[in-house]
Amino acid sequence: xxxxxxxxxxxxxxxxxxxxxxxxxxxxxxxxxxxxxxxxxxxxxxxxxxxxxxxxxxxxxxxxxxxxxxxxxxxxxxxxxxxxxxxxxxxxxxxxxxxxxxxxxxxxxxxxxxxxxxxxxxxxxxxxxxxxxxxxxxxxxxxxxxxxxxxxxxxxxxxxxxxxxxxxxxxxxxxxxxxxxxxxxxxxxxxxxxxxxxxxxxxxxxxxxxxxxxxxxxxxxxxxxxxxxxxxx
Length: 233
What we know:
The structure is a single chain. Helices cover 35% and strands 24% of the residues. It has 233 residues and is of the alpha/beta class. It folds into 2 domains: 2-31 and 151-231, 3-Layer(aba) Sandwich (Rossmann fold); 35-148, 3-Layer(aba) Sandwich (Rossmann fold), CATH 3.40.50. The protein has a 6-stranded mixed beta sheet, sandwiched between helices. The N and C termini lie close together (10 Å).
């Protein structure tokens, strides 16, 4: 099976290796360039908890000192896995949606609303989680520690690979990535090769982006279930 992955290599290398070992052909088309923002290190003592809605937020986190017991709220399993790899042991995963994350934070007994939470994220988010939590009485510092830039070019080898091996399945992990992917496909006139492709979307919002452009074979999946989805094809 031909499988197209849109995540940056650092986020998809393990998955690509597993898929390759299962005999699949992998087409890697990263759609976003992630860059760290230059910030002074964060003092973790200022905050009651950290909130992460992406793995890139934890990967680009700079602290004065690491508090391994700091409560960390994570949007999903992949983000929580990265947080735990960084040495944090007090983590809570929301299962993949920002709305679920918000509800878990609101219902958390461990939080003191008099203290400040640090919402650490990128420059482009689909939901204003900080504003939603402020409405519930929380004190939030929104800290943008990375930027995402759409990739606008396909190299010749990747272009040829797509033409020679049109993807059976495409995995897309954010609305911004979806927009970038659709723009790339249009620019290089590759739409016709993907009419039978199943597009796996990390959320309904990502699915809606493809729907707006007339894509038909759309499904929502949860991070970590990629191989399960492929096996159910």
